[in-house]
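Changelog note: in this version the structure field was regenerated for every chain. One regenerated record is shown below for reference.
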Amino acid sequence: MPRIIYDSDSNEQPKSTTRRRRPLHDLLGGEKVADILLWRNKYLSAGVLAGATVIWFLFEVAEYHFLTLLCHISITTMLVVFIWSNVAALMDRYPPRIPKVILSEDAFRKFSLSFHAKLTRGISVLHDIASGKDLKLFLLAIASLWVVSIVGSCCSSLSLLYLGLLCIHTLPALYERYEDEVNHLAVRGSHDLHTFYRKLDSTVLNRIPRGPIKKMR
């Protein structure tokens, strides 16, 4: 996103400075996840999107139960392994083996450390917002949660998760392709939001009585 400069005494449109310094691929981690989100590997990205769509269809449209689906997948896998093992013995082939990558202890350790770091960072950000240090950000968070609660009451949690995954899976690639147009609209929207907040602050927020601030010794 470009940096925006406001003029508090005028209503002129803001001007954006230089574009972001780091590429979007680096901001998303710069690894396989970024390649999937930006559709650098089209087959893998399409596979992830198709898999999520199949899961959503099975549970929401076909009304499949999780335990039933898990049992059916296990039965199918066991039958495939059983047939493969017996056919391989008759044809002097190697039986199927579980890849070591699936049972890698290092992969599980990296995943747990990454999850712990992101969870700690998320809790810290929520604590800073809830403490009221930035009133504008606090009001924006309250409004966002209220909108999400309304959307959640209109559809199921799985549909909401699928919609979020669909947005995460498509919006970064669209932003990378139409970056200049999106930045222009973002600058105009941010300027309008800033103007609205100044009016709200001068007419409503500044009139709210507040207690004296105690100085820290």
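Spot check on this record: Residues 6-10 have pLDDT under 50 and may be disordered. The chain is about 70% helix and 0% strand.
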